[in-house]
Amino acid sequence: MKIISEEEQPVHGGVRYMNRGPDIDWGLITLQPGEEKPAHFHEHMGETFYVLQGIMTFKLEKEEIQIPMGSAIRLEANESHGLENKENNPAKLIFIKEKYLPEDKINCT
């Protein structure tokens, strides 16, 4: 058993890892109004996002999709994705990477 407190985990650019390995990576992302995360993809793992608060805009390869609070989006390996909060209030979501492969991130820019 492992108990993890959100407040005890460091935040890096709005990303707070709650658990890193040995099997999965997961954590929280909080974006303030107008804040965004650049597009990237993972070659070997899919990623699921669940919106806890607000509306998050996902910038996919050929479209933008707004995902509201209480909804999830699943992205397969090699699907490019960036995030942006285009709303007037903070947005917060959970991310779950299906494997623990911290080196599996390729920036699109």
Automatic annotation (TrEMBL):
This is Cupin type-2 domain-containing protein. Pfam families: Cupin_2. The keyword Metal-binding applies. Residues 28-96 form the Cupin type-2 domain. The lineage of its organism: Archaea, Promethearchaeati, Promethearchaeota, Promethearchaeia, Promethearchaeales. The keyword Metal-binding applies. Keywords: Metal-binding. It comes from Candidatus Lokiarchaeum ossiferum. It comes from the Archaea. PANTHER family: OXALATE-BINDING PROTEIN (PTHR35848).
